[in-house]
Amino acid sequence: MSTLTVESTRFGTLEIEADAIIEFPAGLIGLDSSRWTIVGEITDGPFQWLHSIDDPSLALPVTSPWAFFASYEVELSDEETERVDAGDDTVVYVTVRAGSELSAFSANLRAPIVISGGRGHQVINEAKDAPVRAALFPEAVVAAPQPAVA
Amino acid sequence: MLIITRRPGEKIMLGDDIVVHVMEIVGNSVRVGIQAPRAIPVYREEIWNAVRDENRAAADAAPEDLPVPTKNDA
């Protein structure tokens, strides 16, 4: 199978199989790239990277929301549901904002990334209790002298 | 920027495919209906801004910032 080479500023040379390319028709909000791939294996820990193929310096840490938020739910409007057109192979990620301390790490539960059939969409989750910055390590937030606000 | 006046019930066309329908005005709120092709996502601006900020902040991370390795170093 043909592969694509990306000289990642974070990970060095990445060989990307054609079927690992994820097309985002509307891109990611505020970021200029429509082709992405997932870097890292789920077996290596909870975090992987959504890595741009168009821009070798652009990548976001992501995680499965259920690795941290067991009761997480995604509720989409009819318009979003139609746009995403999710199939049996659907995978959901949330983006991760890294911090200098564990208490500052957060995930964006409001705008998950839904990938299905080689296509990806960042959608707006209509579910209640889906903040843009949900603490990933709430125990660390409780212990921190100045609790971060989700 | 184009500034135009519309009354409830009137519409605005953006190109050929997008219709913005001014449905009703109640107090200081305007109810707006938007019809767009399904490939075009529609966002409330404040949510779009918040998600853009989160995406950009997430993209600032380096692999060593994460608390557990995401790649096999072995």
Low-pLDDT regions of chain B: 69-74
Radius of gyration of chain A: 16 Å
Shape of chain B: elongated
What is the chain-wise order of helices and strands of chain B? Answer: EEEH
Which stretches of chain A are low in confidence, meaning pLDDT under 50 for 5 or more residues running? none
Q: What fraction, in percent, of the residue positions of chain B are helical?
A: 10-25%
Shape of chain A: globular
Number of strands of chain B: 3
**Most extensive interface:** A-B, 40 and 30 residues
Major pleated sheet of chain A: 9 strands, antiparallel
Supply Rg of chain B. Answer: 21 Å
What structural class should be given to the helix and strand makeup of chain A?
mainly beta
**Overall pLDDT level of chain B:** 90
Largest sheet of chain B: 3 strands, antiparallel
Oligomer: heterodimer
- Secondary structure class of chain B reads alpha+beta
- Summed up, the helix count of chain B is 1
* Total helical elements of chain A: 2
SSE arrangement of chain A, N to C: EEEEEEHEEEEEH
Please, could you describe this protein's structure?
The complex is a heterodimer of chains A (about 150) and B (about 70). Chain A is mainly β. In chain A, strands 3, 4, 5, 6, 7, 8, 9, 10 and 11 form a nine-stranded antiparallel β-sheet that branches. The longest helix of chain A is centred in the middle third of the chain and has 7 residues. Chain A is globular and about 50 Å long. By secondary structure, chain B is an alpha+beta fold. Chain B contains one helix and three strands. Chain B has a three-stranded antiparallel β-sheet, with no helix packed on it. The interface between A and B is medium-sized, with 40 and 30 residues.
Task: Give the helix/strand layout.
The complex is a heterodimer of chains A (150) and B (74).
Chain A: E1 3-8, E2 12-17, E3 22-23, E4 35-39, E5 47-52, E6 59-63, H1 78-84, E7 91-97, E8 106-107, E9 113-116, E10 119-122, E11 134-135, H2 138-143
Antiparallel strand pairs in A: 1-2, 3-4, 4-5, 5-6, 6-7, 7-8, 7-9, 8-11, 9-10
Chain B: E1 11-14, E2 18-26, E3 29-35, H1 45-58
Antiparallel strand pairs in B: 1-2, 2-3
